[in-house]
Amino acid sequence: VRDCIQKTLTEWSSKIGQDQNQETLEVLECTVAQALEKINPEERDELKVSAKLFIVGSNSSSIRDAVDLACSALGVAQLDSVIIAPPPVEDGTNLSLEYLQPYWKELENLVQNKKIVAIGTSDLDKTLLEQLYLWAQVKPSSNQVNLASCCVMPPDLTAFAKECDIQLLTHNDPKELLCEASFQEALQESIQKVKANEWIPLWLLRYSVIVKSRGIIKSKGYIIQAKRNAS
After folding, report:
1. Percent of the chain having pLDDT more than 90?
2. Burial 109-148 (b: 16+ CB within 10 A, else e)
3. Per-residue burial over 25-50, b = 16 or more CB atoms within 10 Å of its CB, e = otherwise
4. Where does residue 222 rank: exposed (0-12), middle (13-18), buried (19+ CB within 10 A)?
5. Which residue, 231, 224, 219, 229, is CA-closest to 54?
6. Between residues 31 and 2, which one has the greater pLDDT?
7. CA distances from 214 to 31, 48, 163 (A)
8. What is the mean pLDDT of residues 159-168?
9. Closest by alpha carbon to 4, among 29, 30, 25?
10. SS3 state at 229
11. Alpha-carbon Rg for the chain in angstroms
């Protein structure tokens, strides 16, 4: 992820030249047009557009921004599925239903507004997944399990998922896909004269476009949003 960010920023920075003073800007839209392929509307029904969203800062409103930007970048009206990774909790605090609820409500609103078809979770054990399922208006359609945490799916989780028609998937994403320090290092090395320590990543979305009939990935990539905290 860090390499992708650094390469994109370096290429973007070299193209805009030095005529733009980044120090005065609150928003930098860093896009390399040729690296992003919009989906042809005529092919949309043949493709599945899925995403996994990693919230770096604990702000549920980031979800709508991430989905809107992904739809705009890919040229689609909605995403077929979005899985949310558990947002970061404070040290010594356990992940709970109460903590997840505002994030899930944002996802539910996007389903109701037809911006997302199906929503899923990641790294929830049987107890928390059941609590979310019983509380939610829009039920989770999937739950990802980290291969590093278990070689075999927990039997209680498997039984519950089967009973409630929740698809169990596996992943090998690290607990923290992109930390603040790593992002700032990539920014510092890519753009000259930028005060990297002022920029804080908010969220990271990884998308993939899959050809349904063949099960192959047509394209994939990352979209990230950061804010500037200028003192």
Report:
1. 50
2. ebbeeebbbbbbbbbbebebbbbbbeebebbbbbbbbeee
3. eeebebeeeeeeeebeeeeeeebbbb
4. middle
5. 224
6. 2
7. 30, 11, 29
8. 95
9. 30
10. coil
11. 19
In this prediction, residues 61-65 reach a mean pLDDT of: 89
DSSP 93: -
Three-class secondary structure of residue 83 per DSSP: strand
The label of the residue with tokens 């070299």 reads 14
Q: Would you state the structure tokens that stand for residue 15, as one six-digit string?
A: 């193209």
pLDDT digits (tens, 9 = 90+) for 103-121: 999 999 999 999 999 999 9
CA angle 107, 109, 55 (to 5 degrees): 30
Q: Are 222 and 183 in contact (CB under 8 A)?
A: no
For residue 220, the one-letter residue type is: K
Q: Alpha helix (H) ranges present in 113-147?
A: 126-135
Where do the domains of the chain lie, and which CATH numbers do they carry? 46-88+95-175+202-228 (3.20.20.100)
Tracing tokens 């990352």 back to the chain, one arrives at 222
